[in-house]
Amino acid sequence: MKILTEHIDVPNIDTIDVFMKHGGYSAVKKALKKMTPDEVTEEVKKSGLRGRGGAGFPVGMKWSFLAKPEGVPRYLVCNADESEPGTFKDHYLMWKSPHTLIEGMIVSSFALGANTSYIYVRGELMYVINILEKAIQEAYDKGLLGKNILGSGYDLDLFVQPGGGAYICGEETALLESLEGKRGNPRNKPPFPAVKGLWQCPTVVNNVESISATSWIVNNGGDAYAAIGVGRSTGTKLISASGHIKKPGVYEIPLGITVEDFIYSDEWCGGIRDGHKLKAVVAGGSSVPILPAELILTTAAGEKRLMTYESLSDGGFATGTMLGSGGFVVMDETACIVHNTLTFAKFYHHESCGQCSPCREGTGWMDKVLNRIEHGQGRKEDIDLLVDVAKKIEGNTICPLGDAASWPVAAAIRHFRDEFEWHIEHPELATKPGAVFMREGASWTK
Amino acid sequence: MSKIVFPAETLELVKKIIARYPEGKQKSALLPILHLAQAEWKWCSPEVMDYVASLLSIAPIEVYEVASFYTMFHLEPVGEHVIEYCRTGPCCLMGGVEVYDHLKKRLKINTGETTKDGKFTIKEVECLAACGWGPVFQIREKYYMHLTKEKVDEIIDELSK
């Protein structure tokens, strides 16, 4: 079942004529001519679509929080600041099929009553920004953007805004600050963007994938979307698969397939690269807890784990993880967990905006301590120190970057403590190039 | 450096960018215009930033504090080609460390440095959202993916011509 990527490999699908030949922009016609904004919102609510950026908050509910005071403009801002390590699905979708996002932007802006909308794209993707701007111009030329779209009386202007290289701007209030031309420091909430967002006006911020899914929902109805998936994990999800698999890439999966199928089936990742075994997976982007092979394939209760929000988080952080952004990083037995954790810690240290002390100082300390463990200068008490620092960041910051920084460190120690101990106790072995700890009796060392 | 003024066609573009936002909210154009400025002058010198401030009728400090927050803006002179390699986890899993070490050896410079002939600067950056195609680096707008030592040599050879 493909919703977003059905035609993604059609030659020239990035041009509006080819896109329309494959049914593109039919949702705009249907929504603007046959539906009211509230009816569109109602279908999105019924679909059960959840925010695809990582938080998984129901999109329809987020829309219904939007304040609608008379005479005040409302805005839809698309979050295309994709920067969570392991995640490259939005990059892929916008690069290959820009009109999929633009169609979703028109439908969603109509539902929200926004007459000006912005797509905030991470600045490094300047070539994708050029692709989007060309596609937007095509949509204007066809009367799908601008004044009185398709004679419906609805007006919409759509602009692309480049970021400047800052992970924190993926946090929605930091994104709005950035769009206002400021440093990307997250705002205190409340007020939420739905009440005071861009330039203090009511604003909805949604991820690329979430917005892109709304066109299919308009065309086929919320119930049809909700029929795909399992329980509260409805529809399809783009998964960015990377690491030690045979076929890295972006895959659109119906939510609910097993993790085992996703890793080993030829339809998806195609299995672990030849001659190697699965050791661990970071299932939803760098911030979610890493799990060792046995816990990613089956829950602690012994059930097959599914690619759903609920199944991946089964067992809480003790034995589970999160679907997050769908950044699925696979590691075989050659991967050093200490080194990988260090790269993530460095990332969060670099990307902390510096506003809250626990995050600004804590990410620096985790980076430093992990760095000395990696380089053979670890101390016995360092492991507990890391756990302690992680705990003191979590929940103590304005935005979720603090949590995102603390979880990967805490989880790596939770599930691979022996690997950290080995680094500290045997620095002469651990610092040899390519050296990796082999846990006795583990499924990946047999 | 000659007097800092955008060419006429860029000034037209600046006007168009400012028109994307409601009246009085022209500061929103800061990031897009800093990108244009960096494309024009290679790096964001204080003079360039002062010029950008004047275009937007904002105080120079408002530009400095923004340019210094975002990784993409170079606050020091850089070489003709700025190679920004992704050093985050997934690229490292795919052999990034060896490839980037090779790049540094080949150019005989470290991260953050520029070759003596002013041709190349190497910068270390965080995740470039191309994890499935790693190791990855970026030179201006172009992504170079699935890097190997051999590929790095080819790219450097090509750019050295």
Q: In order across it, which strands form the biggest sheet of chain A?
A: 8-7-11-9-10
Return the string of H and E elements of chain A. Answer: HHHHEHHEHEHEHHEEEEHEEHHHEHHHHH
What share of the residues of chain B lie within helices? 40-55%
Number of domains of chain B: 2
**Global geometry of chain B:** elongated
Unreliable residue stretches of chain B: none
Q: In angstroms, what separates the terminal alpha carbons of chain A?
A: 37 Å
What's the number of structural domains of chain A? 3
CATH superfamily of the largest domain in chain B: Glutaredoxin
SS strand fraction of chain B:
5-15%
Mean of all residue-level pLDDT scores of chain B: 96
* Top CATH class of the largest domain in chain B: Alpha Beta
- The fold-level CATH name of the largest domain in chain B is Glutaredoxin
β-strand percent of chain A reads: 5-15%
Distance between the termini of chain B: 25 Å
Based on Cα principal axes, name the global outline of chain A: globular
Structural class of chain A: alpha/beta
What is the H-and-E element order of chain B? Answer: HHHHEHHEEEH
Radius of gyration of chain B: 18 Å
